[in-house]
Amino acid sequence: MKQITIGWLYPRLMSTYGDRGNIISLSKRCEWREIDVKVIELNVGFDKKQLEECDLLFMGGAQDREQKVVSEDLLIKKEILLKKIEKGVPGLFICGAYQFLGKYYKEADGTIINGLGIFDLYTESSNKEERLIGNIAVKTNEGTIIGFENHGGRTFLGEDAKPLGKVISGFGNNGKDGTEGLIYKNSIGTYLHGPILPKNPSIADFLIEKALEIKYKEKSVLKKLDDSLENKAKSVIAKRMSINL
Amino acid sequence: MNFFIVLFGKILSSLSKKLNLGSGSTWPGHIALKLNRHFIEELLSESKTKVILITGTNGKTTTSKLIETILTKAGKKVILNKSGANLLNGLASLLIENSNKGKIDADFLIFEADENVVPKIAEIISPDYVIALDLFRDQLDRYGEIDSISRNWKKAYEEFTKSKFILNADDPQIYFLSNGLKNKTLFFGLNEGEEQKQLEHASDSTICPKCGSDLKYSKIYYSHIGNWSCPKCGLKPEKIDLKTSPLYPLKGTYNQYNTLAAVLLAKDLGINDKDIEKSLKSFVPAFGRQEILKVNGKRVEILLAKNPSSFNESLRTIESQNGRNVLIVLNDRIPDGTDVSWIWDVDFKDLTNNMKLSIAGDRVYDLALRMKYADKEYEMFEDLEIAIKKNLEEINENQTLFILPTYSAMLDARKLLTGRKIL
User: Fold this and answer.
1) Which residues of A137-149 are buried (b: 16+ CB within 10 A; e: fewer)?
2) Which residue, A21, B100, B210, B332, could crosslink B344 as a Cys pair with Cβ 3.0–4.6 Å?
3) Domains of chain A in sequence order
4) Residue A195 is nearest to which of B341, B372, B374, comparing CB atoms?
5) Alpha-carbon distance B161 to nearest alpha carbon in chain A (angstroms)
6) Hey, are the CB atoms on A16 and B140 less than 8 Å from each other?
7) Torsion over CA of B190, B410, B150 and B41, rounded to 10 degrees?
């Protein structure tokens, strides 16, 4: 029986928008395929060794106050995280976590908050503090995905950075250039809540597949699951947004 | 001047009723405010009416109703205002309707305020009492994150210089609202019940409002509500003025807090314990808040469930009664919040398998997915009317159908249950 370990970064502080659903989705989709799965919760002050043993990483969004506490803790562990991502260990970084993996976040008053610099992007707070809120549909290599976005920051990708997809409806990275998220090696950064994985199982499976490939150093083909309910839930919202899947 | 505005408003209002333009119209208030921008402030200051402002994420409506019941039984005249789309016009209209000879004819005005209107209220009125119940994540797309709300509240509370505060000491953010302020403040908190050490996933405020360190809890009642202290800066509730009520008319820990808030206010107003207890006994729940309806001889209980903490608490309340038929209705209209991500923060997995779960609502497929991934069996209905009908058929007269709806779903379900349309 194959096994993967999922590292959930800062569940106690970085889980404001139902992001636990992503962990539930990953865990269940492994379980249904008889892949043994272990989730370790990496809260502030966690041991570096715990991060070393992870085959898949997840981090959600949070409020500013909590984000500050987290950033101090994660800065100390940056090297391990960077090594993992460079090696191709898959990760999913939502909203606040996505911004934090970039180079910096510029607040409305011009203050720069440094990020980890792993993703080639930066984020700016909008002058008017208008948040980008609503249902969003994005065209990606894994098909059209659907979620809900709610963010104040506008993210801009570096020249060579690859977006996760193209916005069909909604705002995406910045509401201007039509890009949403970023994909680097096997890691994904995105603004999509919803949470993203339950209604977009292709993304969940991409992460699981890559985790197995890196861990067992062999091509992995996942057993197909019955996703009719997942697809139906997605198509109901797509229809409302007048989008054909 | 206001004497004439009130008179004029009353004439308009009665005209509008006669012409069938709707009795709940807010345009007498709209016109009053056009004639005098300070109409509300002036009328309030010229009258003897005491204003009680009620704020919080969960429990506002129930607490208002509890206070209204106690005060009315004590012989006071009480008027109630809910913040809606037309906040000021609505309030002005209500005042016109209840004024006589240029003065408000009521002893108390209870003002229920949504999270985001508290700062606006601080600009126009100075309440005699401000009650703060709790602060949870709720409709993040609409109200924003709780840190930004509590920042705005903190500013608003600084404006309430003449108000007496009644605060929930067991919610760290609420406790901290009076920090650094000179207002007279009374605190309520619990000191009983089951001990629960593990924080629920839906806990919101687990770091110190003062220094940002992880809080320590000796008891957790639900979500982030409990007996807390900060190991680093030492912040913790210093005094609690009320810990028990002679009677709790509603089930659930969250309603114990609502009751404590109402009782603490009543005591401060000089109403004696016996009278408080008597009026609590006669309490009838508000719309959809553990409201019990009889439909064709069968019992239906509606428990509004609009965010993870209220949902978890409602589920626990049903479980404690060995409830079997449970219908969950999830909508994503404006009053519900358009983001349904929060259902993944509800602890469905821990539910006993004795419940027969049915699901319905605009986002029934999202609920279905949630159930699938929590390993729960469920029956799915695209049509709410059929869902209610089928569930009612399945229970006998000694059983209860529990409905857990979001806000607009609650209105839909009530309409179906009380209207002639159904069954």
Assistant:
1) bbebebebbbbbb
2) A21
3) 3-240 (3.40.50.880)
4) B341
5) 27
6) yes
7) -100
> If one looks up domain B289-418 in CATH, what number appears?
3.90.190.20
**What's the confidence (pLDDT) of residue A214?**
97
pLDDT 10s digits, A54-73: 999 999 987 766 777 888 89
Strand pairing partners for B100? B103
Work out the number of other CB atoms within 10 angstroms of the CB of residue B267: 16
Omega of the bond leading into A195 within 30 degrees of 0 (cis): yes
pLDDT digits over A124-153, tens only? 987 666 889 999 999 999 899 999 999 989
- Strand ranges of the sheet holding B50-55, from the earlier edge strand across to the other edge: B78-82, B108-113, B50-55, B129-132, B164-168, B185-188
pLDDT for B129 equals 97
Q: Are B130 and B164 in contact (CB under 8 A)?
A: yes
Residues of chain B with CATH 3.40.1190.10: 2-281
| Nearest CA-CA distance, residue A160 and chain B, Å | 32
- CB-based contact (8 Å) between B341 and chain A? yes
CB-based contact (8 Å) between A20 and chain B?
A: yes
CA B106 to each of CA A52, A225, B78: distance values in angstroms, whole numbers, following the listed order: 67, 64, 6
Whether residue B365 and residue A229 make contact (CB cut-off 8 A), yes or no, is yes
pLDDT at B422: 40
What residue in A sits closest to B365 (Cα-Cα)? A233
Interface check A18 vs B, CB under 8 A:
yes
- pLDDT on residue B423: 38
What does the mean pLDDT of chain B come to?
88
Which tens digit of pLDDT belongs to each residue from A74-96?
989 999 999 999 999 999 999 99
ipTM metric: 0.95
How does strand B99-100 pair with strand B103-104? antiparallel
Distance (Å) of CA B335 to CA B20, B116, B147, B306: 27, 13, 21, 10
Please name the residue that has the structure tokens 């064709």.
Answer: B296
Locate B340 and state its tokens.
């349904």
Instruction: Indicate yes or no: CB of A135 within 8 angstroms of CB of B338.
Output: yes
| Calpha distance A91→B393 (Å, rounded) | 49
Give the pTM. 0.84
Q: How far is B168 from chain A (nearest CA, A)?
A: 22
Q: Where in chain B is the domain with CATH 3.90.190.20?
A: 289-418
Q: Round the average pLDDT of chain A to a whole number and report it.
A: 93
Q: Would you call A95 a catalytic residue per the annotation?
A: yes
Q: How far apart are CA B168 and CA B166, in angstroms?
A: 7
Q: How far is CA B391 from CA B225, B293, B403, in A?
A: 34, 14, 10
The one-letter code for the residue type at B365 is: Y
Residues 74-113 of A with CB under 8 A from B: none
Closest CA to B300 of B364, B421, B406, B391: B391
Residues of chain A neighbouring B144 (CB-CB closer than 8 A): 131
Q: Do B207 and A69 touch (CB under 8 A)?
A: yes
Q: For B359-393, how does the pLDDT look when each residue is reduced to its tens digit (9 = 90+)? A: 999 999 999 999 999 999 999 999 999 999 999 99
Query: What is the pLDDT, as a whole number, of residue B199?
Result: 62
The CATH architecture that domain B2-281 belongs to is 3-Layer(aba) Sandwich (3.40)
Interface of B with A in 361-380 (CB under 8 A): 365-366, 368-370, 372-374
